[in-house]
Amino acid sequence: MTRALIARKSTETTSLKDAHVDADPYLRKLHYRAHHRGTREADAMIGGFFDRHAAAWGATEFEWFERLLEEQDVDIMAWALGTAEPDPAFKGSMMDALQKLNFISLPDGSNSTGA
User: Fold this and answer.
1) What pTM does this model have?
2) What is the number of other CB atoms lying within 10 angstroms of the CB of residue 108?
3) Dist. CA 99–CA 103, nearest whole Å
4) Distance (Å, whole) CA 71 – CA 103
5) pLDDT per residue over 54-104, tens digit each?
6) Residue 9 CB neighbours (<10 A)
7) Which CATH class is domain 3-100?
8) What letter does residue 50 receive in the DSSP assignment?
9) How many Cα atoms occupy the beta-carbon half-sphere of 106 within 13 Å?
10) Contacts by 59-62 with C-beta closer than 8 Å and gap 24+?
């Protein structure tokens, strides 16, 4: 990722959906990988996390997310749901945000918080 892109991403506060993702090959790749995991549950959890939070990320957070995408879905979901202890490399504020699960949109249009 270029320094200009990192600087721009770290100052954006809106969602990265649509225009930003489409215009940026790096974000398009991450968006695709986050939303095409292999199961609907993993797509909703990991893709929803990306959509909700990526606009506020800087280089460190994007690197963390790229490493997360290399992990098995079953592990990521267990860490997020609290049924397994996260790998020490993933502990911290990003994992805390993932574990809140307040970003998941369900097929009926509702979200995980019941709204």
Assistant:
1) 0.76
2) 5
3) 10
4) 20
5) 999 999 999 999 999 999 999 999 999 999 999 999 999 999 999 998 887
6) 22
7) mainly alpha
8) H
9) 9
10) 59/1, 59/6, 59/10, 61/94, 62/1, 62/6, 62/9, 62/30
